[in-house]
């Protein structure tokens, strides 16, 4: 069964600190993996996208890694800011369907305190 | 900021009412999607469209219906709302397949009393 599991479910950190969010998936055949940021009451916004051949990608203070062999990804946030408080969702696309089926994790709820 | 819009943002209605949630995008994307999301849970695909006059049901069974008469417009309709329909509804679009980056609207928070 194709699944995406994220950990931790929630995380509280102090402003300025770094943190790492985890994503494990069983989706096969794999096409790509995205990390989305979803602010409360808003739609998700794409942060990074990685294909099979990419093992790291950065977007400002966000750095995503991918290990396609172990089917794991992480999102590292550097020097956190209050505006980083949001849900971070790992999304994996399969390669086997015409639609390009997406599998969503439940997200990690990050809270940054001053 | 993606050019995809949803109205209303919030809606509180009584049981049995007919409602239509609007979604429009100005990016010229062929593919459009409707997702349902409950608090703390993953997004579930309920409808999608490959283009004009094309609509398909998603993975999560839904009593809602959709239409795609124009490329930019993908409304969702509930003929008779029930409390079980209370949820957040997110509309999205992508340029080609679902593997491309999907751009999401701000969502409609629906509460059925």
Keyword list:
heterodimer, A: mainly beta, five-stranded antiparallel β-sheet, 11 strands, globular, B: 113 residues, mainly beta
Q: Using DSSP, what is the number of strands of chain B?
A: 11
Q: What is the succession of H and E elements of chain A?
A: EEEEEEEEEEE
Structural shape of chain B: globular
Taken in chain order, the helices and strands of chain B follow as EEEEEEEEEEE
Largest interface: A-B, 25 and 26 residues
Provide the gyration radius of chain A in Å.
Answer: 14 Å
Helix content of chain A: under 10%
Q: Count of helices of chain B?
A: 0
Main pleated sheet of chain B: 7 strands, mixed
Distance between the ends of chain B: 33 Å
Low-confidence stretches of chain B: none
- First-residue to last-residue Cα separation of chain A: 41 Å
**Quaternary structure annotation:** heterodimer
How many strand elements of chain A? 11
Whole-number mean pLDDT of chain B: 92
**Helix-and-strand structural type of chain A:** mainly beta
Shape annotation of chain A = globular
* Global mean pLDDT of chain A: 93
- Ranges of chain A where pLDDT stays below 50 over 5 or more residues in a row are none
Walk me through the topology:
The complex is a heterodimer of chains A (114) and B (113).
Chain A: E1 4-7, E2 10-14, E3 19-25, E4 30-38, E5 45-51, E6 56-59, E7 62-67, E8 72-77, E9 86-94, E10 102-104, E11 108-113
Parallel strand pairs in A: 2-11
Antiparallel strand pairs in A: 1-3, 3-8, 4-5, 4-9, 6-7, 7-8, 9-10, 9-11
Chain B: E1 4-7, E2 10-13, E3 19-25, E4 31-37, E5 44-51, E6 54-57, E7 65-66, E8 76-78, E9 87-94, E10 103-104, E11 108-112
Parallel strand pairs in B: 2-11
Antiparallel strand pairs in B: 1-3, 3-8, 4-5, 4-9, 5-6, 7-8, 9-10, 9-11
């Amino acid at each position: 069964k194709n699944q995406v599991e994220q950990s931790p479910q929630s995380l509280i950190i102090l402003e300025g600190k770094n943190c790492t969010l985890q994503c494990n998936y069983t989706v096969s055949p794999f096409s790509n993996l995205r990390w989305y940021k979803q602010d409360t009451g808003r739609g998700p916004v794409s942060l990074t996208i990685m294909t099979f051949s990419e093992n790291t990608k950065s977007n400002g203070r966000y750095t995503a890694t991918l290990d396609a062999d172990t089917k794991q990804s992480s999102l590292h946030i550097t020097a956190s800011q209050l505006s980083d408080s949001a849900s971070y969702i790992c999304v994996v696309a399969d390669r086997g369907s015409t639609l390009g089926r997406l599998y969503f994790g439940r997200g990690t709820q990050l809270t940054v305190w001053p | 900021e993606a050019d995809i819009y949803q109205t209303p943002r919030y809606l509180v209605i009584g049981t049995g009412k007919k409602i239509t949630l609007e979604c429009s995008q100005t990016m010229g994307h062929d593919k459009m999607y409707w997702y349902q999301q409950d608090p703390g849970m993953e997004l579930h695909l309920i409808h999608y469209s490959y283009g004009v006059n094309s609509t398909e049901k998603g993975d999560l069974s839904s009593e809602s219906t959709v239409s795609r008469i124009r490329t930019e417009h993908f409304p969702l309709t509930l003929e008779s709302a029930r409390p079980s329909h209370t949820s957040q509804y997110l509309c999205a679009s992508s340029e080609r397949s679902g593997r491309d980056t999907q751009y999401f609207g701000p969502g409609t928070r629906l509460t059925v009393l």
